[in-house]
């Protein structure tokens, strides 16, 4: 019995020791004390730049245009038939509709159905019209209004060769930069000086170089006498005259087309000087009365006129009195 109680005491001691010991979840005791590593971030794929979509190098022609004489005049650029809503496709955002005024006079509804077919599909839409009738003013006026409403570019031509040239021009200018039609600005002082000297029509760049090399500076060239300028190689009488006129004429200052509004004080003075209708009538009657008073009276004429002159004088007096009374009322 004593042995049994001793074994029970040892068991209780082992249980207490296990409960007081820290838990061990892994085989490696150092793994429980190591700090946790942050999770790696998900790498998103970068979007790839797609190559630009190039338009075909050839002019796309609708099968509706078979037999059109324009096709025989397109010689600079290639063309091919394609299933397209427009008559001609000249680029990714450019198309053209062809119309003959002779056909339009017979079928006026045709062009409107074709315009509805390309609505919202191209940025630049060209209406290429060939003028093949004598009296075309009314038809062109109608088509111009239609082009404005439907955002079309109206192009007129008078032959198949001209129409083909327009198509080739639009296609060849598809990828042209705006700098092609932009004025070239001078990049250096020499270029600016050459542009200034060549402003007169007959003076070219060689003449500008000769002028500057002879006088050394622009100031000396401007102050030089015509006899001295005529000694410059390549400068004749006409060039000398145009140069002297260009650098010695006075500057013309253009005045504004609209008249300047008068100031407040000037407006008030103008109102004070304004004569009303009653004042004008009173002044006219007064002037007429003074004129009659200055005229010498002839005794025989007065007797012959009789009561007619008296009535006229009385009427004039009454009119003058009434005008002066209205003037006093308005002034008061």
From TrEMBL:
Single GO cellular component term: ERCC4-ERCC1 complex
The record's region (Disordered) falls at 1-55, 286-317
Database matches in SUPFAM superfamilies: Restriction endonuclease-like, RuvA domain 2-like
GO molecular function list: damaged DNA binding; single-stranded DNA binding
Q: What is its main location?
A: nucleus
Q: What spans are recorded as compositionally biased (Low complexity)?
A: 34-47
Q: What are its GO biological-process terms?
A: double-strand break repair; mitotic recombination; UV-damage excision repair
- Where is the protein situated, by its record's location annotation? Nucleus
User: Ranges of Basic and acidic residues compositional bias?
Assistant: 300-310
Q: Where is the ERCC1-like central domain?
A: 59-171
Name the source's superkingdom: Eukaryota
Locate the compositionally biased regions of type Polar residues: 17-33
Annotated keywords? DNA damage, DNA repair, DNA-binding, Nucleus
Q: Which Gene3D superfamilies match?
A: 3.40.50.10130, 5' to 3' exonuclease, C-terminal subdomain
Per the record, the similarity remark reads:
Belongs to the ERCC1/RAD10/SWI10 family.
Supply the name of the protein.
Putative mating-type switch/DNA repair protein Swi10/Rad10
